[in-house]
Specification:
Rossmann fold, 3 domains, alpha/beta, six-stranded parallel β-sheet, single chain, 613 residues
Length: 613
């Protein structure tokens, strides 16, 4: 007869989470780094009480915004290369739906996070409860159904014993390299408090190791044949190269076979910036070196990339006739995009299998020479735009200052606006994972909360967050959380007084300056927002600087400050780096009364002819 223990559903859930482990560098560690929680009537009495009982084994962190805390949980997993993850729990209603944006972010970026929103009463006795969304055509619907399309696995727990199967499925998804993404278990609040006789075996310690799928023999044959026939091969390193911990394998592979490497936003730092074969960023925000080679490439080996439009220049970047793409990816959906030759496998295992078959084959020496020459030219162009001048600084000049002050070993965090493009081109990343960009969903407001998650994952690292004033206004409350829990961030706010990036895009597509920069919005008075004072009000050490040289000095001074620091600098909203880059498909109106839009439409129609469907 099996032994059982009587617990509430919430107590059982909390205990189960404490027993899930993983092995990293020979050490067994908890797979869950903790729980971010904002309590309300939908989770405080049930799950909140259960978390209190395990607070020493599974730390609970009090955040200030549900979206922010879920962003931090996602960033923790990304910074941990998906080997560890976190939980985020909220009340019902707005607390729950505040986490939907973070769920979508995790879904797009293939990042594991366990979301536990409270839900309505399963017994329906008190319906409608406070914050309940009712559908008079479907009695089973609640607000939490909005999580379904942005969760890899969704379940509503209406009986306490259901967590036995639901949590097993959740862990399988969270730890699977192909299915990886957000899991949402919607916790009916009455069921949270109900008891059940759980089998003791449910709480046995389990160690989860990363799965490394090996390539199919026929797919491997095809990939090897394509590479051996290549005269101008390139490698695109995506996030999967980092999550697979394949960076050293990638480096050796590229060096032996003379294949230039270019990096997506998710894959940047797969090779050190100063490696001779690292051509830097690729695509819409690509370096001139990467894009020159990509346009000529006859074989593209995409390692762990989902090949989104910024990477492929909206599928107009690869211009060579008959160019072949090899999609090395654990997820078949990504591996076969745009009729690529799929090589469904773990990135590290796939590269090792290719290596075993390629022997001494290498690309022509002339191709490697072209790559190195192109990189030399790009480095000169990059230095020219990052060096300081006496004018109102550009984003590029601020990036140069931050890098000179803190160096390539700092972990840089960003997400949205114009900065991702500039950082993708210009930031000189060192160690794997030192560049943390959320650009799959490009979520304004991720930056500060994401920086907190990175700092929790890498407490001994120098974590620098860069963001614009627009993103700061979207979400800044986790500055207070970082101060409260003693996790220091260095935050650099670039104030261009509006949404400068979208204003530039508006102008580039023939539009009028309208509703992006504050001066171009409907207003009675233009706000003069004191970001430094605002940050100080949340406990941060802050400064407003007036030049690039002052910023470098403040960054140096901030090293010795023990709490989160916020540095603010005014920047020019109109300047972006012209060097490098590629066309991006942004549809321009086919008919307009404005000549500038009609002219932009003609250019757009010309560019569309280079797109490969």
């Amino acid at each position: 007869m099996q032994k059982t223990v009587r617990l509430t559903k919430s107590q059982a859930l909390a205990r189960f989470l404490t027993q899930q482990k993983t092995e990293i560098d020979g050490r067994i560690v908890p797979i869950f780094g903790g729980v971010f929680a904002i309590f309300g009537h939908g989770n405080v009495a049930g799950f909140g009480e259960a978390l209190y009982q395990v607070r020493d084994e599974l730390p609970t962190y009090r955040a200030h915004n549900e979206q922010g805390m879920a962003h931090a949980a996602v960033a923790f997993a990304k910074a941990s290369f998906r080997r560890r993850m976190m939980v985020a729990t909220s009340s019902i209603g707005p607390g729950a739906t505040n986490m939907v944006t973070a769920a979508a972010l995790a879904h797009v970026n293939r990042i594991p996070v366990l979301l536990l929103p409270g839900d309505v009463f399963a017994n329906r006795a008190p319906d409608p409860v406070l914050q309940q969304v009712e559908d008079w055509g479907d009695g089973t619907v609640s607000a939490n159904d909005v999580f379904r399309p942005v969760s890899r696995y969704f379940d509503r727990i209406t009986r306490p014993e259901q967590i036995i199967s639901a949590l097993n499925r959740a862990m399988q998804v969270l730890t699977d390299p192909a299915e990886c993404g957000p899991v949402t278990l919607s916790l009916c609040q009455d069921v949270q408090a109900e008891a059940f006789d759980y089998p003791e075996s449910f709480f046995a310690e389990r160690i989860w190791h990363p799965r490394r799928p090996q390539p199919d023999a026929r797919e491997l044959d095809t990939a090897v044949a394509l590479l051996k026939a290549a005269k101008k091969p390139v490698i695109i390193a995506g996030g999967g190269a980092l999550y697979s911990e394949a960076t050293q394998t990638l480096r050796s592979f590229a060096e032996k076979h003379g294949i230039p490497v270019m990096e997506t936003n998710a894959g940047k730092s797969s090779l050190p910036h100063d490696h001779a074969l690292n051509m830097g960023s690729v695509g819409v925000t690509g370096s001139s070196a990467s894009n020159l080679l990509a346009e000529q490439a006859d074989v593209v080996l995409a390692v762990g990339s989902r090949l989104q439009d910024f990477t492929t220049g909206s599928w107009a970047l690869f211009k060579a006739d008959g160019v072949s793409i090899i999609g090395l990816n654990t997820q078949a959906f990504d591996a076969g995009k745009h009729r690529a030759h799929a090589l469904v496998a773990d990135a590290k295992a796939g590269l090792e299998a290719l290596e075993a078959r390629l022997g001494d084959w290498a690309s022509p020496a002339a191709w490697v020479a072209t790559a190195k020459s192109a990189k030399t030219d790009w480095l000169a162009a990059a230095k020219a735009v990052t060096d300081p001048t006496n004018a109102l600084p550009s984003d590029a000049q601020v990036i140069g200052a931050v890098h000179r002050a803190r160096g390539s070993q700092a972990t840089l965090v960003c997400a949205s606006g114009g900065l991702p493009g500039e950082l993708h081109k210009l930031w000189q990343a060192g160690a794997p994972g030192s560049y943390h960009m959320e650009y799959g969903y490009s979520t304004m407001g991720y930056e500060i909360a994401g920086g907190l998650g990175v700092k929790l994952a890498k407490p001994d690292h120098d974590v620098i967050v860069m963001l614009g004033d627009g993103s700061y206004m979207m979400m800044n409350s986790e500055i207070a959380t970082s101060v409260m829990i003693g996790k220091k961030l260095t935050i650099v706010v670039l104030d261009n007084r509006g949404f400068g990036c979208i204003n530039r895009l508006q102008m580039a597509t023939g539009g009028a300056n309208f509703n992006n920069l504050l001066k171009d919005t409907r207003h009675e008075v233009l706000p003069e927002i004191d970001f430094a004072m605002h940050a100080a009000s949340m406990g941060a050490w802050s400064r407003k600087v007036t030049s690039v040289s002052e910023l470098e000095a403040a960054l140096d001074e901030a090293r010795s400050v023990e709490r989160t620091t916020v540095l603010v600098i005014d920047t020019d909203p109109l300047i972006s780096t012209d060097a490098g880059g590629h066309w991006w498909d942004v549809a321009v109106p086919e008919v307009s009364v404005r000549p500038s839009v009609n002219a932009a439409r003609k250019d757009y129609e010309v560019a569309l002819k280079g797109q490969k469907l």
